Amino acid sequence: MLKLSTKGRYAARALLELALRQSAEPVLLREIAKSQEMSEKYLERIMSAMVSAGYAQSLTGRHGGFILSKRPSEITLAQVLAAVEGPVNPVPCVGNPKSCGRSSTCAARDVWTRLKESVTSVLDSVTLEDLVHMHHDKQNAPGGTMYYI
Questions:
Q1: Per-residue model confidence as pLDDT tens digits over 134-143
Q2: Cα(11)–Cα(61) distance, rounded to whole angstroms?
């Protein structure tokens, strides 16, 4: 079964949190962790990968925290996941045909390649901006979270 790791899911959620707060001040790591119900220590490693990949920026000092390095419309889920998970390859021979001597004659490999292309296509088609809209739609749907002031 094709399954994303916790690292990939948390990376998407952390960047979604930054996208939701984009017009505000930089967001502290502990605020992201609390809002998204994640371990700060684990999130620290994920955010380090996001900074290295160029999707987030870490600001130090009194008004420090994290911000997105690009507009939410410029960051796809495929990019976020690739930064922490690597390429989407359902089986090793899809990413490296030399890993299996049967690659050139394997009918199943063609299916695994199509699976990779389909998954990549979906992930490439969803940006952080799309996730922000989806988040707001869910919050405003009947049964969504209500905030009282």
A1: 998 888 877 6
A2: 24
Give buried/exposed letters for 9-43 (b at 16+ CB in 10 A, else e): bbbbbbbbbbbbbeeeebbebeebbeeeebeeeeb
Q: Which amino acid is at 52?
A: S
Q: How far apart are CA 44 and CA 14, in angstroms?
A: 10
DSSP label at residue 28: P
Instruction: Report how far apart, in Å, the C-alpha atoms of 85 and of each of 13, 53, 109 are.
Output: 15, 12, 21
For the whole model, what pTM was predicted?
A: 0.86
Token look-up 């916790």 returns 6
CA–CA gap between residue 137 and residue 144 (Å, rounded): 9
Q: Which amino acid is at 9?
A: R
